[in-house]
Amino acid sequence: MTPLEQLEPRDVLLGRTTHVRRTLPHKTHRMVGAWCFLDHYGPDDIKETGGMWVPPHPHTGLQTVTWLFEGLGRHTDSLGSDQLIRPGQLNVMTAAHGICHAEVSPDDAPRLLHGVQLWVVLPDADRNAVPADFVHLADLPVFESGGATVTVLMGSLAGHASSAPTFTPLVGAEVRLSAGASVELPLETGFEHAVLAVDGDVDVDGTTVERHRLAYLETGQDTLRLQSSEATTVMLLGGEPFKEEVVMWWNFIGRSHEEIVEQREEWNGAGPDDVPRRFGQVQGFPEPRLLAPPLPNTRLKSRGR
Ligand code: MN
User: Fold this and answer.
1) Is residue 212 part of a domain?
2) In which domain, by residue range, is 28 found?
3) pTM summary value
4) How far is the CA of 102 from the centre of ligand 1 (A)?
């Protein structure tokens, strides 16, 4: 049996205040199914960090999936959405051809902020559609098994299906293990999977995965065993291996260097008082939008999983 592969997070500064642990994309696995980005942050004391403060910025070719374990967030976007983000509630933004949004900690947010921000790449057939209405799901399927409480965010698990919009076969779930829990979950054998150890060490199929690491599971596996002596939480992600080659740069996902150049121009090219037509603008945000950095001197390459 091949040893369980474990991906180490890297530290990235997001906006001005929030340090995140990024495990996707990773040099050995750029994606897990269509999940192409995984940032895990906190628990942070927002009295010290200042909280989340990410001014308006664009996205293309993806969905953002926001999930909090603790705290309170606020999402606003160029479609006019204005949504408080609470623990245990799913928030999905389908950017498709182009959208812009801002994410901040509201003034009355509690002290601790802890969550994950994920991106899902959209397949070619759907990526150029108009952006979809923001999806906020407060009521997700939950089931108990082997001392674990499982909440299904996207796709389905053990026959429990989320109504969140998906464009490729995938699954996303939060698994809360009580002390001494041992749970066996059925997996889609056509999916590759990953398990994020959110706040403690967890035993994945007999191997200890240290806190903050992402364990990677190849396709072909039909069950997953999670165990923990302490109460702890993990995120389970999976999906059909994504076959298309993509170019990911800054907040854009395209298929070629030229597309990214064009998207960057459409965002940065609009004057300070203009609305970039493709992306719109977040009304009433108290600071200017975030401009894209300069492109590298080399051509951006499309890459697969
Ligand atoms: Mn964003």
Assistant:
1) yes
2) 5-239
3) 0.96
4) 7
